[in-house]
Amino acid sequence: GCCGLRGRGAVGVAGSRARRVLAKTTVALANTEFDGIRDASSKEEFLTVLDTLREKGEAPRWASYPLNVRNVSVGELKMITKIDFDTLFSPTGLIKDLKTAFLVVLFGCTTLSIIAAAVFPPQLAYFSSYLIGGLVLVFLGIGSSSPALLQSFISGISSRGKSDYKMRLVRHEASHLLVAYLIGLPIASFTLSANNRNSALNAVELYETDLAQRSEVDKVSVVSLAGAVGEAIAYNDAEGAQADLTQLQSLLIRAKPAFRAKQIEMQTRWATLQSFTILRRYDKVLDALTEGMASGADMAECVRVIESTPQPDE
What we know:
Mean pLDDT: 82
Distance between the termini: 29 Å
């Protein structure tokens, strides 16, 4: 999963404490002002609702976390996070998955062509072979134009049998959502389907942001990597990491002015550390939010969980 811009295109199950918090907060949902979030249909309306709630003291965590932009070295990142993010964001897994999938598609198409030639009449077998062979070209086209999307689909199929599959997916998207909320990026929607890990279908969608404003680029950078970081904190790896990184790189290239290769590396390290710091700081909130989203919470219920879950030493 990943997060997207509208218009631009080991945790397991949280503990019983998180369940109690969610149960208490969901019961009284109909009587609260958080219902106004459901009616927000634009960026301006969403901001108005949340800013009003914050002024009333009912949404103190909204846009409460200030970002500290600075240079972050590879050594500092590894020392603080204790996670090997070089491996996490390495394309090795992506390349391996694509190679395996290509061999499967090639072998499958070859087998089908042989069967078609043996079973169908000559003319039909001739055209069938061309059509089947075209599947290989389609695969190569998708792989070269959008490898991360293809890898997300492949990893989704391969990970179906894993016992932690659903909670990995939910925690990934919950991390995107929580960080976006805490740093003040308005959230348009989120889609979560435990039956499909495809990053195009599972995503926290943000309203379109101004990529000419560095402060906005910084915020979206942190949110973009939050899913992979949140997943890695719990599982030491992240199946959606490559999709998150690809999305961030695309965003930075489209920024005005565009980021150069060295700047992209620096921004990636900083955004990784920022998202790690935020998610560690609000780990209990993330657990409760993950549980809430797994139970089918909508945006208003997610905000309620974020605001009502106790966080020690806050």
